[in-house]
């Protein structure tokens, strides 16, 4: 579809042409005018026109010497924290990686287990990690300092642990979990697996959660590894599909997102449809918002992808950057940079927006 500006320009040319027809200009001149008008009309119609362009510029390595960073958070104007899968919460102060970790957790690691998500607010830090007791693998959510377990015994497995934390504009902690390789749990409202969970920052359950006394906020998820709130306070997530249908979902309180009964789009009104799917799989990871652009990483392709959201729908899609290896997290921070994590380091970039 052509934007209004170009339609207006075309109309202006048509009006000029009609005036010319009525004038005393000879037939030869009319022939040339007609030719150029047709030529420019075809040129305009054939030129792809985008309402808006967004670009990542000046991509630079910000921190080197990291050990599989998973997620990061903005602690204060000088300090960024990030998790390493092997169990350390590391500190970057004024652009310098500090030798001493802020904290260390005794985690079970390998495949999708380990120290995963992180969130920060008011100098307090929240993390999600996988551990093993004598018989079983679990995940837990912990805040520090002082250290306190907020949520424990979230079923764990070699893969599908979820593990992403974000603090909403409502001041609640949102926690993504996976089905921990037992997909039926995703439909069980009594299990924390395959859910988006919502708790108060002290670990208690908010009174306005959909199931009284339960941290469950939405159900029917396979493995959610990305969460971000937009400026209006709506929560969007990335979700990993099987061999098809990675999903982007808009999360609504108490709704069912289908897994394992439905994957991708369906006509069944019991389930919420995704706003976007990806086949073949890209393995979408953590996410952020830049104005109305939902920006997220991809593990399989190393891409940073932007989806422009309007009226809760995707209206444009861009691959903003393609890294040499998988991306685990992207975050747009108040200092104006987009930070992203890959196994080989922490990078940052600036946005350019063209209307
Ligand atoms: Ca779904």
**Class per helix and strand makeup:** mainly beta
List the ligand species.
calcium ion
The whole-number mean of residue pLDDT values reads 89
Order of helices and strands: HHEEEEEEEEEEEEEEEEEEEEEEEEE
Explain what you see.
The chain has 2 domains: 4-46; 53-354, Neuraminidase (6 Propeller), CATH 2.120.10.30. The model is unreliable at 1-25 and 40-50 (pLDDT under 50). The two termini are 16 Å apart. The chain is 11% helix and 44% strand. The chain has helices at residues 4-22, 27-46, and strands spanning 53-63, 69-76, 79-84, 88-93, 96-97, 103-104, 115-121, 124-132, 137-144, 148-155, 165-167, 173-176, 195-199, 216-219, 224-229, 235-239, 246-251, 276-278, 284-290, 293-298, 303-310, 313-322, 327-332, 338-342, 345-354. The strands form 6 sheets. Strands 2, 3, 4, 5 and 6 form a 5-stranded antiparallel β-sheet that branches. A 4-stranded antiparallel β-sheet has the order 1-25-24-23, with no helix packed on it. Strands 7-8-9-10 form a 4-stranded antiparallel β-sheet, with no helix packed on it. The chain is globular and about 45 Å long. The protein has 355 residues and is mainly β. A hairpin with a 5-residue loop joins strand 11 (165-167) and strand 12. Helix 1 (4-22) runs antiparallel to helix 2 (27-46). Calcium ion binds at residues 247, 257-259, 263, 274.
Features:
single chain; 2 domains; 4-stranded antiparallel sheet; 25 strands; 11% helix; globular; disordered N terminus; binds calcium ion
Condensed summary:
The protein is mainly beta.
